[in-house]
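Handout, page 2. Input:
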Amino acid sequence: MTGKPPKHVLVTGGAGYIGSVLTELLLERGYEVTILDRFFFGDTIADLRRSPRLHVLRDDIRWCGDGVMRGIDAVCDLAASRMTQPESWTPPRRWKSTTRGEPASAG
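Output:
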């Protein structure tokens, strides 16, 4: 960061409850927002899609490429696996998929 306030924020898990509320607040305050989410629960941000400052990437944080960070000034990392998904059943897998963005099968 250069000391200037962020202009473009990446919100991982942006279609979840907290992420969608945060995204709405950021858009209301004039930020450009990119959401990165798998949309496991469907399109939960349909009402926000009207904003020209909203960009949506339907992808998984564990496997998306580095290009996702191009032009991003700040990141709000809210991505997490649901506790009912198989990759969340063991603590090591939960740790890797939610804190380090690694595939659940990595160990």
